[in-house]
Amino acid sequence: MFHIKHYKEYLYQDEPLAQNYAVDKHVYGASIVQQDCCIMNNLSFYNTCATMESVWKAQSGKLGLKVECLLPNDLVNIAKQECESLYPLLRLYCPEKDNDRKYNVDENVIAQAYCDALGLEELGGIVNLKEWRDLAKMLHNFTDAEICSSDVVGDLSLVVEHVMDERTNYTQSKLRLGDINGLLDEFAALNPKERHHQYKSRGNKENITPNAKPNLAEWFRKVIYQEKLSPMEHKWLVRIIIKKPDFGIQSTSILRAVSPYANGLLAADGNLKRMCDKLAGPYFE
């Protein structure tokens, strides 16, 4: 049985949300949307992943309780009171709706990047060469039931979680939502098509090769060894990048919990950030 009281605490920091990040409306004015999103950006990425993990694992339970676990009423209300956008959180919960960030990488590219970042296919000075090659084989053949166990086959994020559990001993990163969104922006900028667009928009006349392979392995290496994400965080990171969170709740249900107007606004505009900014303003009290 799914009980929301068991999982609500995952989303929050130790301190009360409004205590350290409250906005003085007498100074800023209640109509100003807080662009720095100080509450949302300071939520723990690990705790957010743990919340998604709990909802994903809950095979039974009412949809309303699962949605409230992801977006507790007090979190939504505090954000509204402080005129703050939920955008930093919703672009992780609903990555398929986030058109501002285009990754344009498939699962095979991600699998290869993890192999390169972890050095699983290096041939020199490796003690457990066979074990490392087996992990690389799993990543490259994550849809093969003869290579991957039945509990992970067909799902790259689960295979990545298994590989990271074998190769690292990190239990929890210190990243907050502002940090992980910044890293994901960096990842999106590695997309050759996106870089081509940025260069053109700046009037850059240099020789541009849109099809050049970006150094994704270096980005994953930083996430693994510098930011020290846990295996569970890597699982959800992969799901965010491929834009398939797959925790059993439609994005329309999540957005409906934010506001009854959310889905209509997004359908009309197609921009998740503008939708969040509008809902954070005074016109949707």
From TrEMBL:
Keywords recorded for this protein, A-Z: Ligase
Classification via Pfam families: DNA_ligase_A_N (PF04675)
Domain DNA ligase ATP-dependent N-terminal: start-end pairs: 45-258
Gene Ontology terms: cellular component: DNA ligase IV complex
GO biological process, one term: double-strand break repair via nonhomologous end joining
InterPro entries tied to this protein: DNA_ligase_ATP-dep_N, DNA_ligase_N_sf, LIG4
Keyword Ligase: yes
Molecular function GO labels: ATP binding; DNA binding; DNA ligase (ATP) activity
Protein name from the UniProt record: DNA ligase ATP-dependent N-terminal domain-containing protein
